[in-house]
Design goal:
Elements (H helix, E strand, L loop, with lengths): L3 E4 L5 H12 L3 E6 L3 H11 L3 E3 L5 H15 L2 E6 L14 H29 L2 E6 L2 H5 L5 H21 L4 E8 L5 H4 L3 H9 L9 H12 L10 E4 L7
Helix pairs in contact: 1-9, 3-4, 4-6
The protein binds acetoacetyl-coenzyme A.
Length: 240
Amino acid sequence: MARVALVTGGTRGIGEAISVTLKENGYNVVANYAGNAQAAEEFTKRTGIPAYKFDVGDFAACEEGIKKITADHGPIEVLVNNAGITRDTTINRMDPQQWVDVIQTNLTSCFNLSRLVIEHMREIGFGRIINIGSINGQAGQYGQVNYAAAKSGIHGFTKALAQEGAAKGITVNAIAPGYIDTDMVRAVPENVLEKIIAGIPVKRLGKPEEIADGVLFLAKDESGFITGSTLSINGGQHMY
Ligand code: CAA
């Protein structure tokens, strides 16, 4: 039977590409979204992938969401923690809510959902958890202390959980995208974005599908020896 894969923030941007790529490759995909109901509806119409609305930063809401998904499709065996937001501004202008919102949505979400799917994965001796980090969690970024902290946290979370899952057949890996052509990146002021693109060795933004291919690779049953790793997909912008 097809494995059930949940992609958080899976109806737009990188998440949409991940949802579609996994579906095209035989997974039983469900997407989660938070706010944009119209986009989610159009996504489901376009792709045939069901979308479930809940706030990934809220444990109780995730619990409800996972219960519903499990009742409708069966237990989740592939989890892609992709949901993410930005609230960019320098720290002298950042208010506490902008800090909390980004940490909750981008990092606490990884705990919430992993916590809720891990027991089934441990029982069956198989699981794939793929967390979407960021180049800006690796290298830092002016105007993003909240986002960089959350994404950097994802990379630590990945390595710790990988150690816990290894003996149970559960791999936990991260992808660190660079600047990808999505609404999130297009929201960066044009003059700032031009300078960023000029600093990318391949001289262009990445495509959402280029991240989705990485997720597919890590999700495969055959990728069981890869765990605790970070796959950087950034056009050569940051190498280490
Ligand atoms: N390094 C050093 N100085 C910088 C800088 C940088 N990277 N970026 C801006 N500055 C300086 C500017 O030169 C300017 O200095 P002066 O006042 O001396 O001229 C000052 O900071 C203010 O710059 P802005 O006019 O841009 O100020 P602002 O307050 O309007 O905006 C900002 C500040 C919100 C940080 C804005 O510059 C911005 O949005 N930057 C982009 C941040 C970014 O890359 N976000 C990534 C979003 S995409 C994403 O997160 C996905 C992913 O994972 C990659």
